[in-house]
Design brief:
By secondary structure, the chain is mostly helical. It has helices at residues 12-35, 38-59, 65-84, 87-96, 98-107, 120-132, 139-149, 155-161, 166-182, 195-214, 225-241, 246-259, 285-300, 306-319, 328-341, 345-359, 361-374, 381-393, 397-410, 414-429; strands at 218-219, 412-413. The radius of gyration is 25 Å and the shape is elongated.
Length: 437
Amino acid sequence: MASAPTAPTQDPHQVVDRLFREESGRAVATLIRVLGDFDLAEEAVQEAFVTALETWPTRGLPSNPGAWIATTARNRAIDRIRRRGRLAEKAEVLRREAEIDARLGAVGPESLVEEDAMSPFRDDRLRLIFTCCHPALAADARVALTLRTLGGLTTPEIARAFLVPEPTLAQRLVRAKRKIRAAGIPYRVPPEHLLPERLDGVLRVLYLIFNEGYGSTAGDSLVRQELCAEAIRLGRVLATLMPDEAEVLGLLALMLLHDARRDARVGPAGELVLLEDQERARWDAERIAEGRTVLGRALRMRRPGQYQLQAAIAALHDYAATPEATDWTQIAALYAALMEHAPSPVVELNRAVAVAMARGPEAGLAIAERLAERGELVDYPYLHAVRADLLRRLGRRSEAAEAYRRAGRLTANTTEKAFLARRLREVTTGPDGLTPR
């Protein structure tokens, strides 16, 4: 009789790396609730992962690695409290946490996200998300703290991602944690009457993280895959914890539908490839299908919001088999609806592009010129890039060239600078390489 196939051997280092991304936020969240101390919780969890790296390669993987990490982190926290002479203060509450370890061993960490509302991990991660994104904290601190505690990114990784010196990023984290302690920011999910405005702040943080990954504002790379992945992962966590919030699902769908096109945005030499020129066979069909499913769940709740509208726009782009098949009229209508839900000059600029595609470049340029006259986006490179493109399409080469120059001066991303310089050469020398007369 043939023997049953054996599971492939797992590399302990790879398992530790994966678990750190997936489980560290869960373990940190629980210890913060117990200890009331961000730093102590993070240090204890980090020590648990270091111990895993030291012991698992020789002793083998435990049957439930997530539970092993949780138990070890709790024990490391007890050791640190003992060394600080505060064991009596915290020991009793830590002992009560032993029951969590028993539950972990019974269900496995991968099942906890599906548990009912009584799950301590369900509550703990929600508490941590809302604490990290509290409106009393500066916006850049919210992003850094979310990635550090929930995303499992290290301080150097976050500093590199947002192109700030590591000491600067470290100081942001220190100030954020100090503000939480000094201001007595509660470690809790806000009461129901405050939830909408607080949830908006949480969603904005995840949206910002994804946007910075999808179109980096500075540096040599157009796309930072690790930030896109972290934003989507955190979006999945939030959607699991708050499955009845339509805008949570809307944001997750938006990120998935955009991320499906991520690889096609960059050419073989790392150059920017516009949506209309992308090789659609490179789009991720499975991610598009998932995004459509999530968006469908959100829309069935009949509580429209800005993220659902943006996801619907992304879905229309993803549905089109060719650029010519894109329903620009519907996209322009969705941008008009988005202006009602979340009016902003950036949304209006996007509407200008859609109107230009639906009704011609003159109609879109009229909207863009009104925005330019108002002066709200005077330093926004994409305003000048949109104006340049529409002027180019209308044959107004000298005006287009000046707009391309201005956009190039304002952008800090090397890949975008190269794209704008290439377009500038096209309007100043012509497609045949000769200067237009």
